[in-house]
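ok trying again, last paste got cut off:
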Amino acid sequence: MAHSIDIEVDVNGEHIFIIDKRILASYSNRVSELSTKLTGYTKLKFNDFPGGAESFELITRFCYNNGSILITPSNIFLLHCGCTFMEIPILITQTELYLEGIHYLTWSEFINGLKQCQILFSTMSTHPCFQEFLNTLLGNLSLPSSYPSSNSSSFRFSSSDTTPKSSRSETLLDCWKFDDLTFLEIDLFEKVIKSMILLHFEHPRICSFILHYQKSKFFLCSSRRQKCKLLETTINLLSSLNESSFSCRELLDVYGTSLILNMKTPERLKLETFLGSRLDEFRIDDLLVRGKKKQAFDVDLTLRLIKVFLLERRIFGFFPHRAKKVGFLVDLFMIEVAVDPFLKPSKFIALGMALPDFSRESHDRIYHAIDLYLQVHRDFSEDQCSKIWSILDFSKVSTLTSGFLLVRNTNFLPFQKQNKFKTSLFHDFVFHKFPQYVKNTNKKEKPRAKGVLHARRFTQKRSKIIDPCNVKSLPRLCH
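nice, full thing came through this time. structure:
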């Protein structure tokens, strides 16, 4: 063994290679410098070799093949990093020329390139060269066209500035096979997305990639910690895109997953900021999120979303028709939560007063919500009831709705100062809605009293037709 020229190389603790020191030193300046200090059978250990054992094996093949190796998209990045580390000038020159000459990559070549990046990521994630690799991959991908062309049945992408970036990205990402990319680790996936943003790919296409990856990868995660990291990365990446890139329903799906995982508050608040600005696109079911402690639904979440929605008005301007949609939605939500016995009056009042007056043309639904709320909470004091009724604008309550509920609900408006409103409301309700009953009464009788009597009978017979608060509008908790 004294005259042996072999050396034992331990690469990152992954694999041990036994190679001829003279052959390796003839190409590698690093090994050549070390060989002058080493005699006999020697052991070398590399703890930070880029690409690990796979990359080192490519270097040894190059050396044992008289300084020649076939460079392909499947090995270019591993070769380049390996020869740079080993200080092999001739191979460094060859790989650099190859990288400069790359103009087009097929889908399979692109996938192989990403797999090399996956191997290199642990040791080179912060190296500028690694970012260049990603940019090369994304900037030179060529795919079969989905549409026939008169000139050619396929097209290619190039890095030329003459190609519009928007058209490049649109056609590119329309053809992406997202399932082929689930092998990417979360950290590398994040870098790929950021590279796509820097290369000006269209944000809606990037968003499709993000959401598809999140859904596919979620079920492959073995622990809650991994799932939380995946969702946190998804939220942070979505926040880097234009708000018009994703739909409200897609955001709601992500938010629902964050609730299931009980995500940290900062990430959820980012989503709530996006969702609140699009509150007018919600459906009532979207607001019915399980509440904390004993509350049936999360009223605080709805109040936060309303706050974000109103903040958008001050920043970007406001459209009244959007506010009216939100007003209708909040009214339905108030009806749903009104029958919750654990809902505090302050929360109920906050819901009723959260939006500006012009967001509601009618207060009939608020009227109905208050009626339900007071029926459930019969132990309220007169002062509490007064505050609750204060959110109602009587001028926006329809005569039909008011008249019916006044006849039915004896607890309505138990304040002396509102007796005049009650009297005038009955007068309008009877004489405008049931004039035929008033004309047929005895002149000696008070037409008002007779009209009220007939009105009461009429509403009892026809309640299924004219009652705006019938069983169809009952909250889910009552079903």
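cool. The two ends are 88 Å apart (CA to CA). DSSP finds 24 helices and three strands in the chain.
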